[in-house]
Amino acid sequence: MAVGDVKTAQGLNELNTYLADKSYVSGYVPTQADFQVFEQVGKAPSNSLPHALRWYNQIASYSADERKSWAAGVSPLTAGGKTTTAPAPAAKDDDDDDVDLFGSGDEEEDAEAARIREERLKAYADKKSKKPTLIAKSSILLDVKPWDDETDMKEMEKLVRTIEMDGLLWGASKLVPVGYGINKLQIMCVIEDDKVSVDLLTEKIQEYEDFVQSVDIAAFNKI
Fold this sequence. Notes:
Layout: H1 9-18, H2 32-41, H3 50-60, H4 64-68, H5 94-98, H6 111-129, E1 137-146, H7 153-161, E2 168-179, E3 182-192, H8 198-206, E4 212-222
Antiparallel strand pairs: 1-3, 1-4, 2-3
Helix pairs in contact: 1-3
């Protein structure tokens, strides 16, 4: 499905429909295509467009440095929609080039030269320590299987989404037939690796034992 100009109401509606069963605009992990569409949307969609709003908030949760590390992706936009490329590496800060860690010249180092060198070393170390640290995240696709075809799947999904953890963000979901009239719930989530244990998450889902028979990891990708 192609999406028109997302700066118009029609384009946003098309984007909302496109994201109904997707967490990202291109694949199971965020890409430069998400960032391209995010930039064109410009601001959070209204509550009447829940899928687009959920996607927008998810992309907005990443820092600028994290977005720069995303791989290329295919944009669904018909207006200039095409494969995007990862951004070129940022140019080296001129300030780094200006730092002379060891001084220059063959003259004997005196007390003033030593003081200047120590000041430069300290300034260089302070600058490096202030650079942001990337947060390791993973994108997970879970298969949540019910006991039988009489299980209320809407209630099951509602219960799964009530699970809240610091570093956990739920994404898109859909029902997938497994046979004999039984559907499984397939649901996406993004976790911060240092904060959320996948084993603990699956255990919490399985605690709804009246609805859930088992939980499997269908896909696991580092972001």
